[in-house]
Amino acid sequence: MEEIIQLLVSGLAYGSIYALVALGFVLIYNAVGVVNFAQGEFVMVPSYIAVVFLNFWGLPFILAYLGTILVACLFGLLFQQVAYYPLRHRTYLPVIISTIGASIFLQNAALVVFGAEPKKPESIFRPGDTFEISGIFIVPQYVLILVVTLLLVAFQYYLFERTKLGKQLQATAQDKTTAQLMGIQVNHMIIFTFMYSAVLGAVAGILVSPLLLVSKTMGGGLALKAFSATIIGGFGSVPGAILGGLFLGIAEKMAARYISSAYEQAFAFIILIVVLLIKPEGLFGEKISEKA
Fold first, then answer.
1. pLDDT of residue 286
2. Where are the domains of the chain?
3. For 139-193, what is each residue's pLDDT tens digit?
4. pLDDT tier at 73, thresholds 50, 70, 90
């Protein structure tokens, strides 16, 4: 039982990271109707910024993390202006190609600036730190990930369900033309969505980088898992992205422990294939009837 609980905690921690990145996928998809294939770089770039603030500049953790989130906001704004805005009146394909090109550019820029060697950012907790509860040893970083993710999910629920801005974001996601006719500044909503998605990526990067290290490819691996989570949960569904990420994280850790750890990275895609075969619209997606 102790082992199962430890696996659940670690699975929920990694699943929370997948969920945060998956939320970025879903929010941008709902806002502009395209998949942002540079979503992994929304994790990678702020993670390197955090390394600069913590390791090179020696800033306190609070200042470093707040500075990283501020830079992520600016990065999301710049990305929207460069990769999406010039192509906003085109079909979805040029925008997708633009995000892929941005992803390649950012990975190579990180390689040139920071080198190929992975970086380990300073962490609030010391390496190997654990604490014991009733014979169960838990990594503090896992608990931090779970707490921050829970707070972000609660904030997102409040934002979308209880605020005027949230209602405007939902209206823009449902129908941009109608939202514009109702007086909503659609372009501002899209800009906010990109910035918020970048913040989610930054938080995911800050939380997971002490566990995975920071490299130019770290975002790509997380983005693939998160993309799988969005499909498993139901593409376009915010609750589906969250639950799909958590489900994927738990399933990965359980399968790695009780089946084979050698194929841990493959289990996400095996689960994805199984879900698509059984329920193509995803676990929480709406079933769409074929048109005649």
1. 61
2. 2-278
3. 899 999 999 999 999 999 999 888 999 999 999 988 888 999 999 999 999 999 9
4. very high
| ∠ CA 5-19-184, rounded to 5° | 150
Helices (H), the chain: 2-32, 41-51, 61-79, 92-114, 140-162, 164-174, 176-181, 186-212, 218-233, 238-258, 264-278
Instruction: Give pairs for 151-156: CB < 8 Å, separation 24+.
Output: 152/20, 152/200, 152/203, 153/19, 153/242, 156/23, 156/238
- d(Cα 258, Cα 86) in Å, to the nearest integer? 49
| Rg of the chain in Å (alpha carbons) | 19
Given the candidates 1.10.287, 1.10.3470, 3.90.1520, 1.20.1500, the CATH classification of the domain at 2-278 is: 1.10.3470
86: tokens are 């010039």
Strand partners, 217: none
The per-residue pLDDT for range 98-148, each reduced to its tens digit, is 999 999 999 999 999 999 999 989 888 877 777 777 777 888 999 999 999
Q: How far apart are CA 77 and CA 142, in angstroms?
A: 30
- DSSP codes joined into one string, 171-202: HHHH-HHHHHHTT--HHHHHHHHHHHHHHHHH
3-state secondary structure of 1: coil
Instruction: Compute CA distances 9 → 144, 201, 214, 268, whole Å.
Output: 11, 21, 23, 18
